[in-house]
User: Fold these one by one.
Assistant:
Number 1:
Amino acid sequence: MTGNREQLLALRQATVSFQGFVAVDRLDFSVAAGELRCLIGPNGAGKSTTLDLICGKSRITSGEIIFRGEPIHTYREFRMARTGIGRKFQVPSVFRELTVMENLEIGCSREPGVWHNLFRFSGGADTERLERLALLVGLQDELSTQAAHLSHGQTQWLEIALILAQDPALILMDEPTAGMTAHETNMTAELFNRLRGQHTLIVVEHDMGFVRDIAETISVMHQGRLLAQGTADEISEDPGVREAYLGSGGIGHA
Amino acid sequence: MSGKLTRQFLIYGAVCLCILLVPVVVDDAFLLNKYARYLVFGMLAIALSLSWGYAGILNLGQATTFGIGSYCMAMFLKLKTVPVHTGSEGLPDFMVWNNVTELPWIWVPFQSTTFSLLAGILLPALFAALLGWFIFGGRIAGVYAAIITLAVMVVANLIIIDQQSYTGGFNGITDLAEFSFLGIDFDAYSASTYYLVAASLTVTLFLALAVSRSKTGLILQAVRDQEERVRFFGYDVALYKTFVFALSAGIAGLAGMLYTIVMEFASPTFLGVPLSLSIVIWVAVGGRQSLIGAMLGAILVTGVQGALSESEAFLETWTLIMGGLFVLIVLLMPKGLAGAIEALVRRLPQAGNGRSARHTEPDHRPETHPNLGGTQ
């Protein structure tokens, strides 16, 4: 189903080992432009590590990462981000001492230079766009609230909004619904379905209900390798996947 | 412009005006010299507030760049003096005593006024840029970065003491000519020198305010909160930190130059651990996340320190009193005096309108943009 779409990201034989422990093992993985891909797998399968490799937080020991036809795995983190990759971390990380609006202004990083930003002050041309983003994640009434005073769910959404302010071609989401209430999770699923098509997303998620709500293609990782790939129904009937999840109570409880 | 920003400008302007008007009231040249010295310390506090308060870089060696600026000015003024024993063509006195036969190459450019004045700011900035590039490029942060700044200062101090024939060694550089610029003579004990320092302080304060209010200033605060997060938005964090480190050093260098004019000498003690740690105390007391708080903290602490140490009643206990005050303030007001005042002001209007003030906020949004630098 990704055949007629342009390939955005490809990992080829990507391998990383931490002091002998191979977290990601000769992984071949590719995502087409505009796709919303879910990445699932049992604990320790290497999902978060894979996201770390794509955004530069960890470095591959061998193999290559191609983004928009460019091998990016040698770039430093900020340069990888500038090629159009945004990362939402598992533990929500926002700037707690700054207000919601100030947070969003940081996210807006099209012009990352020190000198350029020395002559830029708040209330610029981006304000309207950032207010729309705040509205999208339901933080429109909290613009001048210090981020430290937001609830956990709001903090998660703020970080998602920051990534949207950055406006990268590829968004990496690491457990975006972690710690959210059922209602908040539903709203997040709705948000992701709205992002579909405008951005390419790779979402690591444990909540299978959420995955079913948003996914078109699901990739399953196990022991650092790609185990299976397909629709939600194809995945849950795959014997290899069933075996991998054995003992953890099946895929629904992963 | 938001109401908060206007208020901030008014406060900063009013404080600077008060400082500039002091010579109208005070006629005592000795007092003016003393106050000018306090203002120089205020400038140092602004420098540290930028790097520590905004970017989270604790510089325990702020006095290094202060000292470099101070020596630049001292070298310049030393070459303007006429040596007593050898006449106007002769070398500075301490070089003669050390059997130096010709002017060392590092002294030669300081015959130029333009070079000397620029060097006093740019050399410390360049020095800090190189050091910052090494520290931040190597991802050294927190206490380790602080230790490096401290160690570098001790090394610089030792080099100055050791290279006596070029630096005057332990005695420093004394017996300087009077600084004169654009036809004005700046006698250390005069209103003109006080105005020079006060004007420099005003310019520095507003420059630092502009930087802290810019998006670069906002990004620096974000780096203080979550460095990793900033990096993955595509900002070159090391470059941002190096920038603020160098800017802070440039301000400290300017303060050093002024200090030499006010004190009429330069000494290796200017690059000392006691001064560096004092700057940290002033800034902590005043409020490190407020430029004006840090500045007033320095003026207040050094002022009280001066008054206590000069009064007979506290001659033996003043260091104890200062230490006790410092501990109390740090324990009770983690954001310093400025933070405590800010919290008090914020509570005042809310006491009247209750929570309704906050709920109506979004309606005002179009004209009052949520502003930068909320830490003020």
Note: The two ends of chain A are 26 Å apart (CA to CA).
Number 2:
Amino acid sequence: MKNNLKITLKTFFTDLLFWIYLLGCLYYLFNYWFGFELENIYLLVGGLILTLLFMLSGISLGRKLFLPSRFTELKWSRTFWGWSVILLLIVTFFVGWYLVEVNPYKFFTKFGNARGIMSGLFNPNFDILSMSLKALTETIYLALLATLFAIPFAFILSFFAARNLMPKTLLGNTVYVAIRTFATLFRSIEAIVWAIIFSVWVGIGPFAGMLALMIHSIAALTKLYSEQIENIDDGPVEAIKATGANTLQVWVFAVIPQIISPYLAFTIYRWDINVRMATIVGFVGGGGIGLLLLQQQQLLRWQNVGLIIWLIAAVVWIMDMTSAKIREKLIEM
Amino acid sequence: MKNIIETRDLHKVYASGIHALKGINLEVKEGEFCILLGLSGSGKSTLLRCLNKLIDSTSGEINIDGENVVTASGYTLRRIRRQIGMIFQQFNLIKNVTALTNVLSGKLGYVSLGHSLTFSYHKEDIDAAHENLKRVGLLNFANKKVKNLSGGQQQRVAIARALMQDPKVILADEPVASLDPATADTVMKYLGELNRKDNMTVICSLHFLSLARKYGTRVVALKDGKIVFEGSPKELDERKFKEIYGEDAEEVEIR
């Protein structure tokens, strides 16, 4: 009975969402083409009516997804839900086209606007080399410190965020869920957003950038580390337990030896990512080469921009190669 | 001889609902080499893991050397566990460290947390580890990484690790199931030696009757979580064998 209600509710809300979205898209298009105006409430009412109509007649998408009907053996092209999905895709494409202001004409005819930056790229100004290298060094160290500071936090948190290590008690579960939720939450907030927060908090500069990357790295590494723990071979854990070792000894002797080289690999990979992100973070006040790039771009000094772009590309390329090499070696260990 | 292991009406029901042990009454005397027979899924592994509480039993009693295992926790449980060496089908060694380090980890139940976290072992423990590796014929392999050793060598390292515990009892969960017949016999020889020379009580699950007859002093057979046969290996004839393994089973000989 309870299950039935759940299925009905799922069906209802899927259909309701479907029809309101479809009506909304159609309204946007009619408004765009013909200047057609309508109170928003009519979209909701219309969506509700269509939902009830097609849900009750049993041919809607929701019915198809959650309540296998007697039409299931029909090919999709001969069903109502099939065609309504096609309509949805077409309408979505058109709405997207207008929302994003897609304009191929501009793309092909306005290349001239970019002449400055293009010629800057091929005639980089080496006069600012020492200044740029200084900013670049700042960025690399910023990324390095963000990674280093993140390691101990993520290392400890990862043990408590690993399903197989946490006892299946209320406390164990709460700790696991809490840490996993925070890690997901903090990771889903982009480093650039953290940089905005910290550039207000501690002022514009590399320190703000480092804090932003550190927070993001803790969250990301906690997740990667704990998944690594969940993938370990349980055998040694069992064996070390059987010798009479306590929990902490089991972690140190059976878990850590199994995860140490993947941990290092992930950490180096993270440093690699952090160097790349440090540039972006610099744009919003995180200091380093990103900040310099932003300043030169706003002054329209394209030759300076050119040099900075080449330097960033070179560093990212070198980091990418070396980190891949080191990780390869670590996996073999 | 006194009973070193006793279970009374031991039951285990897993969270999945599987009733793995259905009232096991097992008595093992000091110095016995007890072979557990039975199909995969008959409850052998569950029984062995209940004995040192790697798995919590659902109901019933377990006594090992006079200590109640079911209620034990914390330090008491660790003290019970360190008297019971355990050997596994998949060896369960730490693959990317040396044989010596693996053997030393057998001493963890005895060393303080501080000592173990700083990896500072006592000299006598290191000597004992070498001694135990020598005993299983692997002294020259002490500083080799375990993953570079063969299956038989790995299982011998696992035996050396168990020896570090100075155990009274050895639980062996299909110790030779992933080894070739010749290596299997070597590993069983070491277990037999511990049983006879050091008077350790061994409970060992196996699939090969030939090995059971050669090394066992007693056989206990499980089927669907119940004991269906108990007796000396000699009593285990073809009829009994078919009772345990089903009508279609043929005995596979390994020598």
Note: The beta strands of chain B are 3-13, 19-29, 33-37, 59-64, 67-68, 84-87, 169-172, 201-205, 218-223, 226-231.
